[in-house]
Amino acid sequence: MRCPFCSADDTRVIESRVVEDGEAIRRRRECTSCSRRFTTFERYARVKTIVIKRTGEAEEFDREKIVRGMRAALKNRPVSLAEVDRIVSELEEQLRSMNEVTSTEIGLRILEELRTLDEVGYLRFASVYKNFGGVDDFRREVSEIDDRSFTLRKKEDGGGEA
């Protein structure tokens, strides 16, 4: 590993630690020439998942793009960043075995997670994802949420009428 300070080729590992739930190794290194220390991360090379957008354009899966979209939808909502990270990590794990996936499939998976996590965040994300054109689109979506909630309550109550 080349030193980022003096570009010497000879560095030694001082400490190694497993991080990111076993997905990476953090190494503290010291340059034998200038004695400065720096940190490196070692990860296995992943097969890249290609996302096919609605326009037909293809791009590499971008975890941060998903995080930004979810954070925007959940702004000022009682949902932690750790919860967003958990959801995106699970999505990323699901996509890891896929060479290609459509942006529609990713959007639907995110909507399913948001539906159970936070209804306001779900509506915000849906309004962008489904390209709401007006209030009627919001009404339709809220009505669907209400219908699902009623159905779930009926099942939990044993199927009887309220």
From TrEMBL:
It holds the Pfam family ATP-cone. Its cofactor is Zn(2+). InterPro entries: ATP-cone_dom (IPR005144), NrdR-like_N (IPR055173), RNR_NrdR-like (IPR003796). Residues 49-137 form the ATP-cone domain. Binds 1 zinc ion. PROSITE patterns: ATP_CONE (PS51161). A zinc finger (unnamed) spans 3-34. Keywords: ATP-binding, DNA-binding, Metal-binding, Nucleotide-binding, Repressor, Transcription, Transcription regulation, Zinc, Zinc-finger. PANTHER family: TRANSCRIPTIONAL REPRESSOR NRDR. Belongs to the NrdR family. Negatively regulates transcription of bacterial ribonucleotide reductase nrd genes and operons by binding to NrdR-boxes. This is Transcriptional repressor NrdR.
